[in-house]
Amino acid sequence: MDAHTNAARTPAAATYPISIRINGEQRQFEVEAWVTLLDLLRERLSMTGTKKGCDHGQCGACTVLVGGKRINSCLTLAVMQNGKDIVTVEGLADGDRLHPLQQAFIDHDAFQCGYCTPGQLCSAIGLMKEGEARTVAEVRELMSGNVCRCGAYPQIVAAVTQVMGLAEHKDNPDRPYIPGTVPA
């Protein structure tokens, strides 16, 4: 028996039907049990805004909103999100009008290489919805799961706190603001 014959006899992997609302659009899929939400978004839908960084949930580049809560899409299986409402970075703007946080990122030069930006934006929107951050220090702490390799943390925090209406000097007026070099 040759390899071609064996391949013809090997049953296809089982797939599972799922229905997910992505950026306001209801979508149907047949997915294998091991497909992550990140791979579903990037590889099957070509929604490459959500980035694959570490693929271990350590960098936050793949952060999306599920039911308004931020999650690392590399750590969840697509079948686990059946029936859920997913928002990716592609779903933040309203047509040509940017989300206020996207505009604040531009205003504060909060993206450098831009690789982490989609995850930072989704994480910050989730943070704002959680309502746990009341100070600049809490914003820094609650955004600490999102890694920026360029070191744009001060600009990112400035953008988030601007949209939240927090004054940068509210935490510690003596803390110097050094753009681009100080990690959160």
Write the layout of secondary structure elements.
Elements: H1 3-9, E1 15-22, E2 25-32, H2 37-44, E3 63-66, E4 69-72, E5 85-87, H3 100-107, H4 117-130, H5 136-142, H6 153-164
Parallel strand pairs: 1-5
Antiparallel strand pairs: 1-2, 3-4, 3-5
Helix pairs in contact: 3-6
Give structural notes.
With 184 residues, this protein is an alpha+beta fold. The protein has 2 domains: 15-91, Roll (Ubiquitin-like (UB roll)); 100-164, DNA polymerase, domain 1 (Orthogonal Bundle), CATH 1.10.150.120. It contains 6 helices and 5 strands, in the order H-E-E-H-E-E-E-H-H-H-H. The protein has helices at residues 3-9, 37-44, 100-107, 117-130, 136-142, 153-164, and strands spanning 15-22, 25-32, 63-66, 69-72, 85-87. The chain has a 5-stranded mixed β-sheet with strand order 2-1-5-3-4, covered by helices on one side. Strand 1 and strand 2 form a beta hairpin. Helix 3 (100-107) crosses helix 6 (153-164). The longest helix has 14 residues, at 117-130. The chain is elongated, with a radius of gyration of 19 Å. The relative contact order is 0.13. Residues 180-184 have low confidence and may be disordered.
